[in-house]
Each structure stands twice: as structure tokens, then as C-alpha cells.
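Example (one chain per record):
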Amino acid sequence: MKIIIVGNVLSEPLEKFETGNTILMILLIISLLVTLITTLLYVKHRKVNRLLIQKNEQIERHHRENDEIMQILEQKKNEIEQQALALNETTVELQWQTENALRLYDEVEQQKEEITDSIIYAKRIQTALLPDVSQVNEILNDYFILYKPRDIVSGDFYWVTAKQNKTIVAVADCTGHGVPGAFMSILGVSFLNEIIKNYDLQVDEVLNKLREQVIKSLKQIEVVRDGMDMALCAIDWEKARIEYAGANIPLFLLRASGDNTEEFTEIPADRMPIGRYEKNQPFTRHIVPLMQGDALYMCSDGYCDQFGGPDLKKFKKKNLKKLLLNIYRQNMSTQKEILETTIEKWKGDLPQIDDMLMLGIKI
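Predicted structure:
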């Protein structure tokens, strides 16, 4: 009985101890849960803070980018406004330049028309100085004159007259073409008229005298390019011969041979012009017997120097010789047509580079 009472007394404190442990465990668990929750909340808070910081940084970066874009847009806007202002000024300037150019164009066209009218009038004067067709027809029978100035007026000229039972014929090529050549041709015609009329000279002496006149009138002290090339022939009908002197322009003589072939003879010119030259020597006189049916040709270098053909080269003297050999038996008017058609076909669409003059006479 005594032992039982002691056991009940000891069990009561033990129950209290167990209850306290349970509470302690509950508190510990709650504390752990709170700690865990707090930790989770702290981690989440930090993550949220990082996200917020990143967002803020992105927002700030976007703001900076937007500011930069706005600055660029503002700068571009200013540039566009400046360009628009410059374009407007350029447009005004271009409009003024266009109006000024049109005004200048009208002035140039008016001046061109006036100059052209003057040159056309000069052509009338030059043509009047050349032998008239009716005059030439009285002196020569079967002949042709192929005369193709490059410009309105020409630096080439021909000259025909009769004196003391002789027919005197000249073909000349003055330095230059157009207006300068035309002025020189007028001098040449005037000097020939004076020399032939006032002096009784041989053809070589005529060229010597003509050279003196040119040098004197142009005041040529030193060697210059101003002057002229010339072929001068005097056909002596009584002696059946031709007297020829040339300054850079040869004389072509075509004659029928006994075997029904053609004989081509080139009578050379002196290699010096009519004008101041490095070594001015007396011109040479050639005397050539003539036969009925002979054909004489004199030409400036414009025909042979014309560019054209398939290779865009010069026509050259050798092609002219071949052509004359093929056509010289025909009448002179037909020869002229063939020569003119040939050079036009050769030239094609290319510009004419020089005056062209060729004179042919059938004996």
C-alpha cells in the first residue's frame, strides 16, 4: 500500500514534464516555420528587388535611348530644315541661272545669226572674185570643177584666165579654212590678177612673184604657217604643151597608151609653200608635151585627207589615182559626179575635215 501512494506522487511531475516538452517542440517547429517563411520571403523580396532594379535600369536605359533618339530626331529635323532652306536657295539660284542661261542663249543665237549673215555675205564676195562659170566655159571646153567648202566660205580657190593664146589655170589651198582661209584666198586671187595682168612671166616666175607679195603683205619676217599651196598651169595651145609650177600641189596627167591602157604621170611640186619658208628657193617650171585626149587634174589635199571608209582612215592619194585611172576616159561631167559620190560615200556620217577642190581638164 505504501508503494502505490509513492508511485502516484511521482507520475504527476512526469506528465507535466512531457507536456512542457510538447509545447517546446511546437514552439520550436513554429519558430522553424517562421524562420523558413521569413527566409523564403526574404529571398523572394531580394529577387523582386533585383527584378525591380533590372526593370528600373531597363526603364532608365529606355529613357536614355529615347532621349538619344529624340536628340537624333531633333538633330535630323534641324538638318532637314537646313537642307530644305539650302534647297530652296539652290532652287532660286538654279532658276536664276536658267533664266540667265536662256538669256545668254538668245544673245548667242542672235550673235550667231549675225555672224552667219556676215559670213554668207562674205561668201558672195568670195564667189564674185572667183571666175564665173560662163567665163570658164569660154576658155575651157571639157572640164569639171569639184568645189566643196568645209564651211560657208573656203580657203581653197580656183583661178582661170586666157592670155596670149595660153589658158592659165590655178588651184590653190590657203592656210586654214573658213574665214581665215577665205581672207587668204581673196589675197591670192587679187595678187594673181595683178601679176598676170601687169607682168609677162613664166609660171614659175609667177609663183616667185606671188610669194614676194604674200610675204610683204603679211609682214612675214620669220617662218610662219600663213600662206598657200598652189598648182599653176599654162596650156600653150600653139605649141601643144603645158607649163606647170607647183607649191606642194602636184599635177596629174593621164594619157591613153597604144595598147589601150592608161598611163598615169605625177608631175611633182616643189616642197615649199607660197609664203615665208625655211629655205625659200625659186620654183621649178616643168614643160610637158600634150596629146589629144590627155586629162589634167589638180586638187587640194582635202579630198585625199578626208576620213571615212570601213576603217575610218584617210582616202589617200593612191586611192584617188586608182579612181582617176578608172574614170578618166569618161566625159568630165560624169567624172565629177563619180568623184563627188565616191567621197560622200567614203565620208559617210563623219564631218568634212577640210575644204575640197579638184579641177579636171580634158585636152
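Caption: Helices lie at 2-129, 133-139, 178-198, 203-217, 317-327, 332-347.
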